[in-house]
């Protein structure tokens, strides 16, 4: 394929790509040791929307904001959706939170006590309702359920409770809604997690139905896991619902996507592109799930989006015709070189062109710094902002 054709196609796909930012990334966050308060942090869900609108203004590809309930609880969700619309964005995935009430010490929908399970299911159903009111097509379920000790609870009974709870939620979802089931191999529990891996999530999704798909959080795997492989398998099964992008060095670090390992991000996007998953109609949700403990959130989210765009652009520049020929001929080194050539390309000029074509500043971070937005929110938002868990 000619370089021109590759670049032309890449630009078309990059113009259509969408990346969702998470409301919780705009607030204060920290570790189990300390949450350092940052200046200019949003005090209300509306101010989180303002920040998300700012990220979208400079990047042009982040027109939606994921909510965490109850962190973003309001009395009037349609009004919140209208506010988002007035700022040029929309409300995205609804993330239920069934891990912060005292009753959830032993789990939520997998809890041994049926009354606690019912409470958790009720919250999930409330989130389905919120999603209907905000026009969100995605219910993004992550459960902190699990056990710490051998014998603490019955693994299979917990799987049964999980299936039962999810089935109730799935049955309540309107036609246009999808349930994305997220897995995590450890934390907060350290012996078993009830949804520890993509296989478990996939098995539950298969039972639930077509509108249940797996959500891959890139920070939720054991070291050395080949994420692009499981992404390829899930794509093939049409059960890849989307991503929570972030990067990790050790555990669930929630650092900026592409910071720790831009090559891994490229490898994942190469698989997605190979399966046609970058097309908007493929319905794969590209969401960020990050915590900015040290750095200001808005420029960190802009930077994260640029990192995803750069990895995507490189994946789009892989000459797939040449790759197929090399693979067919058993040309191992040739095939590898085709992919590595794309990875080694500096795609920043291409992305600058894409932005200019769309009337955006070619340098979103520079434009953000020049805009005075950070100074404005730091002066305006006095009185402490929202933090993780609030
Ligand atoms: C979890 C998981 C969820 C996120 C919470 C806050 O580790 O990644 O997606 O909602 O953290
Ligand atoms: Mn996540
Ligand atoms: Mn996580």
TrEMBL record:
<keyword id="KW-0464">Manganese</keyword>
<dbReference type="GO" id="GO:0008740">
    <property type="term" value="F:L-rhamnose isomerase activity"/>
</dbReference>
<protein>
    <submittedName>
        <fullName>L-rhamnose isomerase/sugar isomerase</fullName>
        <ecNumber>5.3.1.-</ecNumber>
        <ecNumber>5.3.1.14</ecNumber>
    </submittedName>
</protein>
<dbReference type="Pfam" id="PF01261">
    <property type="entry name" value="AP_endonuc_2"/>
</dbReference>
<dbReference type="InterPro" id="IPR013457">
    <property type="entry name" value="Rhamnose_iso-rel"/>
</dbReference>
<dbReference type="GO" id="GO:0046872">
    <property type="term" value="F:metal ion binding"/>
</dbReference>
<dbReference type="InterPro" id="IPR013022">
    <property type="entry name" value="Xyl_isomerase-like_TIM-brl"/>
</dbReference>
<dbReference type="InterPro" id="IPR050337">
    <property type="entry name" value="L-rhamnose_isomerase"/>
</dbReference>
<dbReference type="InterPro" id="IPR036237">
    <property type="entry name" value="Xyl_isomerase-like_sf"/>
</dbReference>
<dbReference type="GO" id="GO:0019301">
    <property type="term" value="P:rhamnose catabolic process"/>
</dbReference>
<keyword id="KW-0413">Isomerase</keyword>
<feature type="domain" description="Xylose isomerase-like TIM barrel">
    <location>
        <begin position="69"/>
        <end position="272"/>
    </location>
</feature>
<keyword id="KW-0479">Metal-binding</keyword>
<dbReference type="GO" id="GO:0019324">
    <property type="term" value="P:L-lyxose metabolic process"/>
</dbReference>
């Amino acid at each position: 394929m000619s370089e021109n054709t590759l670049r032309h196609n890449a630009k078309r796909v990059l113009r259509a790509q969408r990346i969702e930012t998470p409301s919780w990334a705009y607030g204060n966050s920290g570790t189990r040791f300390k949450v350092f308060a940052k200046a200019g942090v949003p005090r209300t869900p509306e101010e989180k929307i303002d920040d998300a609108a700012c990220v979208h203004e400079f990047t042009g590809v982040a027109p939606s904001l994921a909510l965490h309930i109850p962190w973003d609880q309001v009395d009037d969700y349609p009004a919140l959706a209208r506010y988002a619309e007035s700022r040029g964005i929309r409300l995205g995935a609804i993330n239920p939170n069934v891990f912060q009430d005292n009753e959830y010490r032993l789990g939520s929908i997998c809890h041994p006590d049926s009354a606690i399970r019912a409470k958790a299911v009720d919250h999930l159903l409330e989130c389905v309702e919120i999603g209907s009111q905000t026009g969100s097509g995605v219910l993004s379920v992550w459960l902190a359920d699990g056990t710490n000790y051998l014998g603490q609870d019955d693994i299979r009974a917990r799987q049964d409770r999980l299936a039962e709870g999810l089935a109730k939620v799935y049955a309540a979802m309107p036609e246009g809604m999808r349930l994305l089931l997220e897995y995590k191999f450890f934390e907060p529990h350290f012996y078993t997690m009830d949804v520890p891996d993509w296989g478990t999530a996939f098995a539950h999704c298969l039972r639930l139905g077509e509108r249940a798909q797996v959500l891959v959080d890139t920070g939720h795997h054991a070291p050395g896991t080949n994420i692009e492989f499981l992404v390829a398998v899930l794509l093939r099964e049409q059960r890849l619902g989307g991503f929570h992008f972030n990067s990790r060095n050790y555990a669930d670090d929630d650092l900026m996507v592409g910071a720790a390992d831009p090559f891994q991000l490229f490898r994942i996007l190469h698989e997605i592109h190979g399966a046609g998953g970058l097309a908007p109609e493929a319905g794969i949700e590209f969401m960020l799930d990050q915590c900015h403990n040290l750095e200001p959130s808005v420029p960190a989210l802009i930077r994260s989006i640029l990192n995803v765009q750069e990895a995507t652009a490189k994946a789009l520049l892989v000459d797939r015709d040449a790759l197929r020929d090399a693979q067919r001929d058993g040309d191992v080194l040739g095939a590898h070189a085709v992919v590595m050539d794309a990875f080694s390309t500096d795609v920043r000029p291409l992305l600058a062109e894409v932005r200019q074509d769309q009337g955006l500043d070619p340098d979103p971070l520079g434009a953000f710094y020049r805009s005075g937005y950070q100074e404005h929110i730091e002066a305006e938002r006095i009185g402490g902002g929202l933090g993780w868990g609030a």
